[in-house]
C-alpha cells in the first residue's frame, strides 16, 4: 500500500536481550525489539525461527533464561500467563485453542471472566448482581459477535465449526478480554483467499476502531506488507532485521534468508 | 402439546439465559417435581420409597458432586467414597456433640468440612492430571477410610465400628432420621433438598465459575492464557464437588441405611458413582439423575425380569449378569457417546423439535 507511514512514539512493550533455550535448542538468542502503542507489529521469519516462542515469552507462557520484558513501563522477567491476561495481553494460537465442548457464545464469554466480580453465593443463586453481570457481559459479547459476523453460530459447539470459523471465534474470545495488546499467531494460516480477506479486515478494524495494539505472526508476505506498520524478522532465534515493510523488504539479509542462501 | 422452540423468540438476554430457555423444558421439570411431591407419596410402597427412591436421590446428589469435578472441570477422581465417608462421620460427630442444632444445618456444616478435605486432596491436581491424579485421589480414598476405621473416636467408641443415626426432626415432630423417621418423611425431605441442590449446581455451571471449570477441562493452557487462575478453578471444583459428595454421604448414612460402617464407603462406591456419571452423561446435571436412576434400577430390573419372562436364574447368575451389563455399557458409552444418556435425550429432543419434518 502506498499510505503514508503512521507514526507511533509511546512504547507499550519492550523485549530486551531475550534468550530462551530448550535443553540444547536455542529458540531465541538475544532478541531485542519493541511494540509501540497503537501499531500493528508483524513478526516474520522461516519455520522454527522462534516467532511463536517470542509470543509465548511475552504472555508469560515461557520464561526466558536471559533478558527482560518491560510492559506498560513495568519490568518483569517471569510472569504467569493469567497475570499477563489480567494486565491486558490477549492472544490466539497457531493451532486453534478453543474450548471444544462449549458453544461459540460460551467460549467468547470466557474472555469476560477476568472482569466478572460477583461472588460464588450470588452465582449459586443466579440472582442479583450475578444476573445483572451476566447480562451486561452478554451484551458486550453480542457486540463482538456482530462485529465479527458470527451471529449464526452463536449456540453451536465450536468443535463442530470449520477451521476458518474457529479461528474467528478464537479472535472473538481474545477481543472479549478488551486487551491493550493482542498477539495473533498466524491468524490466517490455512484459510482460503476470502477468509483471509475477512480476517485482514477484522485485524485492521480492531486496530483502528478499538485502538488495540497488535503483534502478529504471518507467513503471507502480501498480507504482512499490506497491514503492518513495522516488521521484525527472526531467523534461527536471532533478530535479522527490524523496520517498516519497505525497509525490511529491501534488506539483503532478509532476502537471503527467505531465498535460502547459506550464510 | 408439541415440543417446539420455534415461535419462542427471546426478546431479552435475560430470557435467553434463563435456566430452562425452552418453555416445555421448564414446564416438564416443574411437572415432574410436582408429580414426585404430590402424587408419588399416595401410591409408593415402603419398598419403593426405601429401596428405590431414597437411594436414587442420595446417589443423584453424589453424582452431581462428582460431575462438577469430573464432568465439568475435567479432574478425574476415585475418592468419592472417601468424601462420602467424611460427610457421614462429620455429621455423626457434630450431631451427637450438638444435638440441639437442626440436622439440616449439621449436614451442611459436614458438607463444608468435606469441602475443606476436598481442597486438601485436590492440591495435587495443580501439578498432575489424568491417570496420575486418579491415583492420587485413590490414595485419598484409602487414607480416609483407614482413618475412619482405625480411630474409634469417629464412631463415639462403638464396639462394632458402626455409626447409627440418632432421631432428628426437620421441625416439630417431622422426623427425618432415626427410628421415628418414616420412609415418606425421608423421601419428601430428600426430594426437596436434592431439587434445591440441583438447581444451585445448575446455576453454578452456567455462571462464571462454571465456565472457568469447563475452560480448564477443555484446554487448561488456553484457560490460563485468558486469565483463569488454574488454582482457583481446580480447587473451587474440588471444594464444591466435595461439598455435594459429603452431603450425599451424610444422607446415605442417616437416611438410606440408618446405620453404617466406614467400609460402606469403600472404593467400589467411588467406582459406582463414577459409572453413574459416565452412563448418565459427563458434564450434565440431568445426566447425574439419569445415571443414578439407571444404577439403582438396573439390578432391580435384572432380578425381576427373568421371573416375569418365566426364566429361572440363580442369584449368582444375576449378579454376574449385572457386572457384565455394566461393563459393556460403560465401554459402549465411553467409546460411542461420552455424554451419556443425557446426550441421547438431547438428540431425541432435537429430532422432536424438527418433527415431523426432518430437514
Ligand atoms: N516447548 C518446546 N520444547 C522444545 N523445543 C521447543 C519448544 N517450543 C519451541 N521449541 C523449539 O524452538 C524453536 C522455535 O520454535 P517456534 O518458536 O515454534 O518457531 P516458529 O513459530 O517461528 O515456527 C524450534 O526449534 C522449536 O523446535
Ligand atoms: Mg510458530
Task: Provide the fold topology.
The complex is a heterodimer of chains A (263) and B (359).
Chain A: E1 11-22, E2 25-36, E3 40-44, H1 51-58, E4 66-71, E5 74-76, H2 81-86, E6 89-92, H3 104-110, H4 120-125, H5 129-147, H6 163-176, E7 181-185, H7 193-210, E8 213-217, H8 221-227, E9 230-235, E10 238-243, H9 245-249, H10 252-259
Parallel strand pairs in A: 3-8, 3-9, 6-7, 7-8
Antiparallel strand pairs in A: 1-2, 1-4, 4-5, 9-10
Helix pairs in contact in A: 3-6
Chain B: H1 13-16, H2 23-43, H3 46-72, H4 80-97, H5 103-122, H6 131-150, E1 162-164, E2 168-171, E3 174-177, H7 183-205, H8 208-218, H9 220-225, H10 230-256, E4 259-261, H11 267-280, H12 285-308, H13 315-336, H14 340-354
Antiparallel strand pairs in B: 1-4, 2-3
The structure holds adenosine-5'-diphosphate (ADP) and magnesium ion.
Fold and architecture overview:
- The complex is a heterodimer of chains A (263) and B (359).
- Chain A is built from 10 helices and 10 strands.
- With 263 residues, chain A is an alpha/beta fold.
- Chain A folds into 2 domains: 10-88 and 183-263, P-loop containing nucleotide triphosphate hydrolases (Rossmann fold); 97-178, no CATH class.
- In chain A, helix 3 (104-110) packs parallel to helix 6.
- The model of chain A has no long low-confidence stretch (mean pLDDT 90).
- Chain B has one domain (47-354): ABC transporter involved in vitamin B12 uptake, BtuC, CATH 1.10.3470.
- Chain B contains 14 helices and 4 strands.
- In chain B, helix 2 packs antiparallel against helix 7 (183-205) and helix 5 crosses helix 10 (230-256).
- Chain B is globular.
- The chains are: A alpha/beta (263), B mainly alpha (359).
- Chains A and B meet through helix 2, helix 3, helix 4 and helix 5 of A and helix 1, helix 7, helix 8 and helix 9 of B.
- The site of magnesium ion (MG) has 3 residues of chain A, from helix 1.
Amino acid at each position: 500500500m502506498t499510505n503514508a507511514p503512521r507514526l507511533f512514539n509511546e512504547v507499550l512493550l519492550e523485549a530486551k536481550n531475550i534468550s530462551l533455550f530448550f535443553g540444547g535448542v536455542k529458540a531465541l538468542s538475544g532478541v531485542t525489539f519493541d511494540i509501540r502503542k497503537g501499531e500493528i507489529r508483524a513478526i516474520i521469519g522461516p519455520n522454527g525461527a522462534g516467532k511463536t516462542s517470542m509470543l509465548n515469552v511475552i504472555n508469560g507462557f515461557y520464561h526466558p533464561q536471559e533478558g527482560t520484558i518491560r510492559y506498560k513501563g513495568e519490568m518483569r522477567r517471569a510472569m504467569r500467563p493469567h497475570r499477563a491476561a489480567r494486565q491486558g495481553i490477549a492472544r490466539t494460537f497457531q493451532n486453534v485453542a478453543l474450548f471444544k465442548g462449549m458453544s461459540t457464545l460460551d467460549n467468547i464469554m470466557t474472555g469476560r471472566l477476568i472482569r466478572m466480580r460477583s461472588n460464588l453465593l450470588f452465582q449459586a443463586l443466579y440472582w442479583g448482581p450475578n444476573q445483572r453481570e451476566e447480562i451486561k457481559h452478554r451484551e458486550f459479547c453480542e457486540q463482538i459477535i456482530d462485529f465479527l459476523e458470527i451471529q449464526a453460530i452463536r449456540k453451536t459447539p465450536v468443535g463442530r465449526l470449520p477451521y476458518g470459523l474457529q479461528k474467528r471465534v478464537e479472535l472473538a474470545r481474545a477481543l472479549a478480554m478488551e486487551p491493550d495488546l493482542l498477539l495473533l499467531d498466524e491468524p490466517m494460516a490455512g484459510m482460503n483467499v476470502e477468509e483471509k480477506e475477512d480476517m485482514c479486515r477484522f485485524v485492521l478494524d480492531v486496530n483502528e476502531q478499538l485502538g488495540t495494539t497488535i503483534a502478529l505472526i504471518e507467513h503471507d508476505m502480501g498480507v504482512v506488507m499490506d497491514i503492518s506498520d513495522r516488521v521484525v524478522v527472526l531467523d534461527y532465534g536471532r533478530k535479522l532485521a527490524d523496520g517498516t515493510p519497505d525497509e525490511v523488504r529491501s534488506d539483503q539479509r532478509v532476502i537471503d534468508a527467505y531465498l535460502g542462501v547459506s550464510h | 402439546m408439541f415440543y417446539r422452540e420455534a415461535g419462542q423468540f427471546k426478546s431479552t438476554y435475560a430470557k435467553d439465559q434463563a435456566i430452562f430457555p425452552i418453555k416445555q423444558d421448564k414446564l416438564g421439570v416443574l411437572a415432574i417435581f410436582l408429580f414426585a411431591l404430590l402424587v408419588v407419596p399416595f401410591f409408593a410402597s415402603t419398598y419403593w420409597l426405601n429401596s428405590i427412591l431414597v437411594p436414587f436421590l442420595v446417589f443423584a446428589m453424589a453424582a452431581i458432586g462428582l460431575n462438577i469435578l469430573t464432568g465439568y472441570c475435567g479432574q478425574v477422581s476415585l475418592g468419592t467414597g472417601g468424601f462420602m465417608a467424611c460427610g457421614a462421620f462429620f455429621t455423626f460427630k457434630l450431631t451427637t456433640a450438638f444435638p440441639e442444632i437442626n440436622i439440616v444445618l449439621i449436614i451442611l456444616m459436614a458438607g463444608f468440612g468435606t469441602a475443606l478435605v476436598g481442597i486438601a486432596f485436590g492440591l495435587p491436581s495443580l501439578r498432575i492430571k489424568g491417570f496420575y491424579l486418579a491415583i492420587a485421589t485413590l490414595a485419598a480414598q484409602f487414607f480416609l477410610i483407614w482413618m475412619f476405621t482405625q480411630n474409634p473416636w469417629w464412631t463415639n467408641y462403638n464396639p462394632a465400628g458402626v455409626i447409627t443415626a440418632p432421631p432428628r426432626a426437620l421441625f416439630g415432630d417431622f422426623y427425618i432420621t432415626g427410628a421415628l423417621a418414616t420412609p415418606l418423611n425421608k423421601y419428601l425431605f430428600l426430594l426437596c433438598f436434592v431439587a434445591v441442590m440441583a438447581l444451585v449446581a445448575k446455576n453454578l455451571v452456567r455462571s462464571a465459575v462454571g465456565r472457568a471449570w469447563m475452560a480448564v477441562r477443555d484446554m487448561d493452557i488456553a484457560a490460563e492464557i485468558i486469565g483463569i487462575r488454574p488454582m482457583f478453578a481446580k480447587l473451587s471444583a474440588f471444594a464444591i464437588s466435595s461439598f455435594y459428595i459429603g452431603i450425599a454421604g451424610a444422607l446415605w448414612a442417616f437416611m438410606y441405611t440408618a446405620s453404617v460402617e466406614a467400609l460402606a464407603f469403600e472404593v467400589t462406591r467411588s467406582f459406582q458413582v463414577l459409572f453413574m456419571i459416565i452412563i448418565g452423561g459427563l458434564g450434565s446435571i440431568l445426566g447425574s439423575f439419569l445415571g443414578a436412576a439407571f444404577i439403582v434400577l438396573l439390578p432391580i430390573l435384572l432380578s425381576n425380569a427373568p421371573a416375569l419372562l418365566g426364566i429361572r436364574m440363580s442369584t449368582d447368575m444375576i449378579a454376574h449378569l449385572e457386572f457384565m451389563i455394566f461393563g459393556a455399557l460403560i465401554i459402549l458409552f465411553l467409546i460411542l457417546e461420552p455424554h451419556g444418556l443425557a446426550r441421547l435425550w438431547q438428540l431425541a429432543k432435537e429430532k422432536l423439535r424438527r418433527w415431523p419434518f426432518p430437514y
